Amino acid sequence: MSGRKQEHRQRHVRVAVIGSGFGGLGAAVRLRREGITDFVVLERADSVGGTWRDNSYPGCTCDVPSHLYSFSFAPNPDWPRTFSGQEHIRAYLEHVTDVFRLRPHIRFGREVRMMTWDNDELHWTIETSQETYTADVVVSATGPLSDPKIPDIPGLDGFPGKVFHSARWDHGHELSGQRVAMVGTGASAIQIVPAIQPRVGRLTLFQRTPPWVMPRMDRRITDAERWLHRQLPFTQSVRRGALWGIRELQVSAFTKRPGELGPIEALAKANLAKHVKDPGLRARLTPDYRIGCKRILLSSEYYPAITRPNVDVVTSALAEVRGSTLVAADGSESEADVIVFGTGFHVTDMPIADRVTGADGITLAEAWKDGMQSLRGAAAAGFPNWLSIIGPNTGLGNSSMILMIESQLNYLADYLRQLHILGGRTALAARPAAVAAWNRRVQARMTRTVWNTGCSSWYLDAAGRNTTVWPGTTGEFRRLTREVNLSEYDIVRAPVREEVAG
Question: For this UniProt entry, which residues form the secretion signal (predicted)?
């Protein structure tokens, strides 16, 4: 009996963090810095890295400059390129894990199957693929780019060749000489296409909507620059600050005055004209929506690759699969040995939401059936002591998500401080009125943004509401999440238990 009690006590933690990508590792570092060591990081895979572990496709690279796409508390003077590749970002996250001594807290191979709030005990019960934990506070850092989305294509199950998503790349399958179909023209696809085009036999690109593509001004960071950043760390801070400032100045064009993006659109058209000489193909590759409505993509190799003789651009969605024949929505047909889906992720319908049951006995997915919404991108009504990292309306269209993550870590730290000050078995429950008021303000500002100018993008949910992007600067978001406003929460205390006389 005593052994079982001890085992139960060991499985209760103050904080459970879900996921070990940038958000989860950042939360773990912040917890340690706040003096909290009673926590676990539950990771379904066998290593850290999140989306930078899962996305290992050929050509995978970040479209945010390296010195801005890193934690401010863990600068890396040795980035090899101005825009780093997947392998360097994943190595950076492994380095952060080791430097901040996070591995003892990480439990690999623990996929969360269900999280349930206990109104009596005021804690979460977390069922994983290996064991069950209880936690006073849950930090959900699963991220919006974690669960791949493959469209329901009639006949796909009967395709005789290889099928995989860009985020689940099959490195054991050789593409040399193969007929490959690339479905989608998003951020992943424009990196994959130039990486595989030289070695495949035939590449068919299914383009439902053409993207705006700007050159990626990437270069090798010199040894002298790296030496300078190591010897004089403030120079790296200056570099990061300049990169941040430039992007902050661009925000008003995205959020208030989309018409100011006209010159950027002209540059993108000039980039297209430079590389695509065929007027017919150029017309098919020219978007009909305002630049910035969808994420602006960066590549200096994409346009040259799709003009090569072994590439066919189908300006229509993949509609049906008949054996090895792929049928587009416009009726055209092509043959393929391999289908690669670059069709994005479950962003506005995250599967984790089906696995979280709150105080009222409903799941987060049910609570969000009319659209995701949370207080300051973190707390959802009906889900006490549950905070998300990269929650609703915290995404960015032109800057580094690490800036938003660090702001949410500030909010998490103050949230835990408030619980400590309140003392005892206590929970903070976001008031529905506060969540609704925050969401109304966000959505009211969204009407003026470029993201709501009429295009269809992964920023929008099924009802056409933008529940993904933050309609302001990162500096503003940091101010708004610097501390917890207790007036936006109900303070929930555990019921007093009466002791029965012996």
Answer: none
Nearest-angstrom CA–CA distance, 85 and 450: 29
User: Residue 475 CB: number of other CB atoms within 10 A?
Assistant: 14
The pLDDT of residue 10 is above 90: no
Mean pLDDT of the chain: 95
> What is the tally of helices (H) and strands (E) in the chain?
14, 20
Residues 258-307: tens digit of each pLDDT: 999 999 999 999 999 999 999 999 999 999 999 999 999 999 999 999 99
| Confidence at residue 5, expressed as pLDDT on a 0 to 100 scale | 41
User: With contact defined as beta carbons under 8 Å apart, do 83 and 60 qualify?
Assistant: no
For helices 86-99 and 22-33, angle between their N-to-C axes, nearest 10 degrees? 20
Task: Return the closest-CA partner of residue 137 out of 153, 146, 126.
Answer: 126
Measured from the Cβ of residue 169, the count of other Cβ atoms closer than 10 Å reads 18
Q: Where are the domains of the chain?
A: 2-147+346-493, 156-217+243-341
CATH architecture of the domain 156-217+243-341 equals 3-Layer(bba) Sandwich (3.50)
Q: Could you give the CA distance from residue 456 to residue 201 in angstroms, rounded to a whole number?
A: 32
**Do 156-217+243-341 and 2-147+346-493 fall under one CATH topology?**
yes
pTM above 0.90, yes or no: yes
